[in-house]
Amino acid sequence: MQIALIGAGPRNLAILDRLIQKADSNQALTINIFDPYPVGGRVWNPFFENNQTYLMNTNPNQVTLFNDYDIGQRRGEDLTPNLLTWAQSYALPFLKQHHEYPMAYREEVLSLTSMTAYASRGLMGVYAAWFFEEILNNCPSNLSVRFHQVAVKSLLEANPGFNITTTDYNHFFADKVVLALGHLDAELSEKKKDLEKFAKEKGFHYYPASHPAENDFSSLNENDTVLVQGLGLSFFDDLLSLTAGKGGFFLTKKNGSLVYHPSGHEPHLIIGSGSGLPPRAHGLNQKGANELYQPRFFTLERMQRIAKDCGGHLPYNTFRHVLDQEMTYKYLTNQVNLLDKLSDTEREEILDFLENPKNWQHVNEKFHLKLDVHISWEKEATPSRDVTSLSAFRKFFVQHLKEDIDSAALGNDKSPLTGAYDILRDVRGTVRTLYNDRLFDEDDYQKLLTDFKLFDTQLSVGPPLIRTRQLLALIKAKQVTIAGPNFSVAHDQQFFTATDRFDEHYQGTALIEARLGRPDFRTAKSPLLKSLRQHGLIVGDNRIINQDGTAPLANTIKVDLKTFTVYNKENQLIPNLFVTGVPLEGQSWFTTVIPRPHVQTIAFTEAATVVNQILNQ
């Protein structure tokens, strides 16, 4: 059997690992893997210089590539190291044997000693290369695996099977194909083409949404004013390149705060976004590799029971109420656990009292406490809605960062606020099941894709704590100007321009869209996706229709989510053609998750489903 895995990122590596584990010893398999980037894929490319300093957004003890869906008994823990334990054991010998990797990675693994630290994105790429080498060394003789560092240009049905052409015009045949393409660059819209044209005419610089590690900021200097649109994870990457990457440096004070010392070569940054605020920082990690919060109220069984009682649909307002209730319980119990004047008996009595939500408003009176029992999680996600002037907003922004830093420093388990935010990360599997099982009606799916997506992003998809500290230091060093919410960019005759909610106007000589593009196979630059669309082998998902007749998931490739088999333009399944990961964002909930050990992570559950289809059809 000939199998093609297109994309060599974590998802297809998980599929490869499971194929090797599950293939019958009497069956000959040839597995060809294609990716224009090294094993590990584009995001983790260890040869991008920026990836030596850009951080992963997950602690290294919570990252693995070894597919543990149901094979834990077949491997010892020492043979399936997570990223942290690998860095402390196998990494240095591997790097000493592979001189192609920059010396920076040897220095990094020597310093990566704690589960509270963060690894660089490039080191994740080195881990992927080691992982690939490791599983090939243990590959049975009936399996042949080859990696081709080249992009696939086209894929056509051969009836049966598929013909594959790469961009260097080599041809391959496959009986079965899995596409795991990740985030792809999009063709520029007319507005973005106009921005690009303007930049060329003026000798300015325009950076559209893309992978931040690939941005070349070498031409930007102290003579530039840069408008930065977006305050999410890509923003923090660009921020580092435009400051410390220009020769400045941070010093840590005794109290843990940072001071930035500029080099004088940094461009000035004007930063803004729709919400106006960056997402909350990740808390100092206090959780083990597979340690997830265990809900008291927001359990899968309870939510499924509510849906059953409501005629098969889970009302969005009920979903949010129970989830908010779970976060409030964590918020209150963590406040109690931080009180140092309580005896063990008193603490236990208060915690028992808090198990009933009806008691929450009475806990202060009963136990003579001063707990904050009034919390609005919606306000936590959009705290600046009522700020009415730019000067007030800028003061609020700085105070918001300080409070977020203090909260995150208490830890992702013990902090009242940050510990509650972290629940959103730990219950994603439950949310995904409710979402994928279609337990919401069409209107509520729209709320999940908009309102809840923004809520979840602001509270749980933030940067490592160090990045928020760096942002605060840069503001204090006057390297950054804070713009208000509703930050909108354009250009006039002379400069890039921006406005905000307070009708303030800004000008710049460079513009950065600090974000990844929205996943949309219809506008992707990928020659492969263009070929698949042209031949009708992929189509947008039209199974959910809004009241206005639009399909909110039309940007995603339509698949059978039970098998990940692709639908063609005639709405027929194409046997043996599968798609997983980012191109399904929206059909499946929150696909951009790095594999985590021993928690049935989405990459491994998807891999189990796909491999079962490949080997049993």
UniProtKB/TrEMBL annotation:
<dbReference type="InterPro" id="IPR036188">
    <property type="entry name" value="FAD/NAD-bd_sf"/>
</dbReference>
<feature type="domain" description="FAD-dependent urate hydroxylase HpyO/Asp monooxygenase CreE-like FAD/NAD(P)-binding">
    <location>
        <begin position="4"/>
        <end position="183"/>
    </location>
</feature>
<dbReference type="Pfam" id="PF13454">
    <property type="entry name" value="NAD_binding_9"/>
</dbReference>
<dbReference type="InterPro" id="IPR052189">
    <property type="entry name" value="L-asp_N-monooxygenase_NS-form"/>
</dbReference>
<protein>
    <submittedName>
        <fullName>Uncharacterized NAD(P)/FAD-binding protein YdhS (YdhS)</fullName>
    </submittedName>
</protein>
<dbReference type="InterPro" id="IPR038732">
    <property type="entry name" value="HpyO/CreE_NAD-binding"/>
</dbReference>
